[in-house]
Amino acid sequence: MNKSKNTDITFRALAFLLPLMIYTLTVNPTVSFTDSGELSAVCSTLGIAHPTGYPLFTLIGFLWLKLPLPISNVQSLNIMVSLFTAISSYFLFNSFLLIFKKFNAKLKMPASDFFVYNIAIAGSLAYSFALTVWQQSTSVEVYSLHLLLMNVVIFYALKGHFESNFQNKFYIIASLFLGLSFANHLTTILIVPALIYLYFSNGTLGLSISVERLKYFGIMALFVLLGLSVYMYLPLRSMTEPEFNWGMVHRSFDKFMYHIQGKQYQVWMFSGEQVSENIGRFFSAIPYQLAFIGIPFIFWGIWRLFKSSKPILIFVLIFIISCYFYSINYSIHDIETYFLTAYLGMIILAFIGIYDWLDRYRKYYYLALLIPLISFILNYPNVDQSKNYLVEDFAKTLVNNLEKDAVIISSQWDYWNSAFWYYQHVENFRKDVVLIEKELLRRTWYPLQLMKWYPEVLKKSKQDIENYMVELEKFESGANPEEYKFIQSRWEQMLIGFIEKNIDSKPIYVTMEIMNAEPYLFKNYQLVPEGLTLRLYKDQKFKAVTTDNINLDRFIVSLPENKNHLELGIMESASFALSNIGRYAQINNQDFETAKKAYSKALKINPENAVASQGLYELQGK
Fold first, then answer.
1. E strands, 187-315, where?
2. Which helix (H) or strand (E) holds 435?
3. Whole-angstrom Cα distance, residue 279 to residue 281?
4. Percent of residues, the chain, with pLDDT higher than 90
5. CB neighbour class for 35 (10 Å; exposed up to 12, middle 13-18, buried from 19)
6. CA 546 to CA 536: how far, in whole Å?
7. How far is CA 14 from CA 117, 124, 132, 138, in A?
8. Omega of the bond prior to 132 within 30 degrees of 0, cis?
9. DSSP-derived secondary structure for 324-363
10. If I label 232, which of 18, 31, 281, 385 is the partner at 20 to 30 A Cα–Cα?
11. Helices and strands of the chain, counted as H and E runs
């Protein structure tokens, strides 16, 4: 085997194995925030996920779980997303090789193989350890597969572009994977204008549109549709009524389209509510994608491509700009993942600039490795999830403090509702507990799902549910508001019914946010803090409260120094629940010892809890 072949094999292996090794060391050992639990449950049971359904991710996840790994399903899926992200790094490495070798062909003094491979590996590793990319490798989410498919599409599109004959298999492969990418995440649309431009590019800034090209473009479109056909999984599987059947899309074509279009989320698209905030979040995160020092090279890369390869420049700029303008106009709290395609384009531009700069000073080729090295050091503390048990400990502590056969109403999807779906339906944890996710009651499929999961409780409210569903169907179908003017009153009557018709036979609980959002639920009841929730009692006698069963020591250790909004939220929620116990014990029961314990535990979690601090101050000397 010659030296060049050895170099090729070594660097290709490094592009995949090094990120994979780091990712598996920093992966979350359990369920994480938001959709992690739900997606894990859906993959485990071959179900239907939240809009837009993510059929490709579900199918791959289900097959992955057939591997006989001696770990929990969620931990196995966390490793799967690490693998996806590592493979995406490998394909980016290959894209860099394509571009750099094309540059070499135009130079009078071509760079050595080692020089080219070194800059390519530096670029792929900088991508691997970029903050937002690395974060996708630590816990179950669909964006890891999105990154993989985006990089596959870009690689084969570039191969197609660099071929002298535009009619080649690489455009077909890119088209197929583009369709598959749509079957994973619809933000794939953001790269489509760039791909169309690249295909029709004439080698300069212009376009070459001919009958022959248009015919071949039609063939490519058929392969996109072939990839998109994976969406047929949703209605076909929905008909079999799986354990998780979000949307129940088999009910009608309208329900299917409503689901795959993510129609319920469209109210946040181009709403203009947080454009300035999103712009700030986009630019403030750029330094952590390129270790600060890589940022100037973005502009060097633009200049280099303008001089030597305008079609590639326009291709990359189009998908950066389309991603940026779409994402800043989407008003959601976890917007960072929507910037991924733009950050990918910036990394490509930066390392084209670095390649050009170091080509003038080849003996300093190793300087390119500073960016991934600095990124690794800079981002590791914020990305490492290997000891993160926040969601598991919060969810299990909350549920284990509920009495047997409890009914709990909550809207804390991000903190524990999603996770509990996984634990209850996959790991058979607390099968006796009935969780009613308040916000999901706004969708027609969810009351039907609840009746399947918890028939004993829901059948008592059958008439209330049916009355509400009449109004909800009108709302979901886009009817005039005048046609469903009773929706709020019937919503309230249904929620009240869940409590009134079960409280004599089952303990009823709510989480803290429900107390403020739906006060009409509690006008006939006393709210008593128990564990991390509030229990409803019909009588007004004060009840003894305790913190003895609330052990969040590992939860506290899991809290990172630099907390994101979800980590802050779950911390404040746990701390507030404890201070609420302290307040109840202090004021209602005059139980100062319990109050002190509760306040102390609350402050251990969140030292800035003003209620707990004030409570301890008031109890001095008692």
1. none
2. strand 434-437
3. 5
4. 82
5. buried
6. 16
7. 11, 10, 21, 20
8. no
9. HHHHHTB--TTGGGGGHHHHHHHHHHHHHHHHHHHHTSGG
10. 31
11. 28, 5
Q: Which two tokens stand for residue 138?
A: 């630590």
- Which two tokens mark 339? 């910037």
Structure token digits, residue 142: 């669909």
Rounded Cα distance, 349 and 518, in Å: 51
Cα–Cα dist 492/442, whole Å? 12
pLDDT tens for 498-550 read 999 999 999 999 999 999 899 999 988 999 999 999 999 999 899 999 999 99
Mapped onto helix, strand or coil, the DSSP state of residue 427 is: coil
- Interval 448-504: pLDDT, tens: 999 999 999 999 999 999 999 999 999 988 888 888 889 999 999 999 999 999 999
CA angle 333, 338, 344 (to 5 degrees): 145
Burial 317-332 (b: 16+ CB within 10 A, else e): bbbbebbbebbbbbbe
**Calpha distance 36→426 (Å, rounded):** 13
Residue whose entry in the numeric block shows the structure tokens 């490793």: 79
Mean confidence (pLDDT) of the chain: 93
What is the Cα–Cα distance from 73 to 105, expressed in whole angstroms?
49
**Tokens 């490492």 found at:** 384
Count of C-beta atoms within a 10 Å radius of residue 455: 11
Provide the pLDDT for residue 108. 43
The β-bridge relationship of strands 407-410 and 434-437 is parallel
Beta bridge partners of 269: 330
Q: How far apart are CA 593 and CA 125, in angstroms?
A: 54
The single-letter code of the amino acid at 179 is G
The dihedral built from the CA positions of residue 425, 430, 436 and 439, taken in this order, carries a sign that is negative
**How far is it, in rounded angstroms, from Cα 622 to Cα 619?**
5
Query: Which amino acid is it at 200?
Result: F
User: Encoding tokens for residue 54?
Assistant: 């993510």
Q: Checking phi first, is residue 358 left (phi over 0); if not, alpha (psi -120 to 50) or beta?
A: alpha
For 345, the token pair is 């384009």
Q: How far apart are the first and last CA of the chain?
A: 82
Write the CA distances from 621 to 3, 349, 479, 547, integer angstroms.
79, 65, 63, 21
Determine the Cα–Cα distance for residues 249 and 386; give it in Å rounded to an integer: 37
pLDDT at 164: 67
C-alpha 307 chain-centroid distance: 38
User: At 148, which amino acid appears?
Assistant: L
pLDDT-derived band at 103 (thresholds 50, 70, 90) equals confident
User: What does the DSSP assignment read for 521-590?
Assistant: GGTTSEEEEETTEEEEESS--------TT---HHHHHH--SS--HHHHHHHHHHHHHHHHHHHHHHHTS-
CA 496 to chain centroid = 33
Considering only the C-alpha atoms of the chain, give the largest distance between any 2 of them, rounded to a whole number of Å: 90
Place of tokens 């524990």: 416
Report the Cα 34 to chain-centroid distance in Å: 7
Tokens of 132: 């937002």
Helix (H) or strand (E) holding 201: none
SS3 291: coil
Other C-beta atoms lying within 10 Å of the C-beta of residue 60: 17
Say what the pLDDT of residue 69 is.
Answer: 92
Q: State yes or no: pLDDT of 109 exceeds 50.
A: no
Residue 236 carries which side chain, given as an amino acid letter?
A: L
Cis (ω within 30 of 0) for the bond into 58?
no
